[in-house]
Amino acid sequence: MPGSPDAAKYLWDARRATERIARFTAGRTFDDYLADDMLRAAVERQFEIIGEAFAGLRRADPALATIIPDLARIVAFRNVLIHGYATVDDQLVWGVVARDVPVLLTTLTRMLEEADR
Questions:
Q1: Angle at 64 between CA 4 and CA 41, to 5 degrees
Q2: pLDDT digits (tens, 9 = 90+) for 16-49
Q3: What percent of the chain has pLDDT over 70?
Q4: 53: alpha, beta or left, given left = phi > 0 and alpha = psi -120 to 50?
Q5: Angle (nearest 5°) at CA 76 between 15 and 104
Q6: Radius of gyration (Cα) for the chain, nearest Å?
Q7: Which of 55, 58, 56, 50 is nearest to 108 (CA)?
Q8: H or E stretch including 101?
Q9: Are the CB atoms for 75 and 58 separated by under 8 Å?
Q10: Best CA proximity match to 47, nearest among 80, 70, 8
Q11: Which of residues 110 and 86 earns the better pLDDT score?
């Protein structure tokens, strides 16, 4: 499915970061997240990678980028994490972890599996 090697790399990078978020937060609660500075930093960093990968994907293969639900919002979320670091809303981040990461992981896995066919 990816039309260029760069597009495939961006999808792989985003999936790896999404997998890391899922692994880092497995079995954790919001209170665990709040109490663990290292966990928060790790999760935020992986979201930054996802947003940067999707920004690159949008440049490398705009048509492929349209398949990813909420791509523009994900890139905007990355921008908030980087540029608005002093006002990051932990509850918002945790909501994205709980609600959106599983869906994103499924989408990216499907896209990469289709690319391998």
A1: 90
A2: 999 999 999 999 999 999 999 999 999 999 999 9
A3: 97
A4: alpha
A5: 25
A6: 14
A7: 50
A8: helix 101-116
A9: yes
A10: 80
A11: 110
Residue found by looking up tokens 């391998």 in the block: 116
Confidence tier at 5 by pLDDT (50, 70, 90): confident
List the chain domain ranges.
Answer: 5-116
- The position carrying tokens 């909501």 is 95
Backbone angles phi, psi at 36, to 5 degrees: -120, 95
User: Of 108, 76, 107, which is closest to residue 92 (Cα–Cα)?
Assistant: 76
SS3 track for 25-83: HCCCCHHHHHHCHHHHHHHHHHHHHHHHHHHHHHHHCHHHHCCCCCHHHHHHHHHHHHH
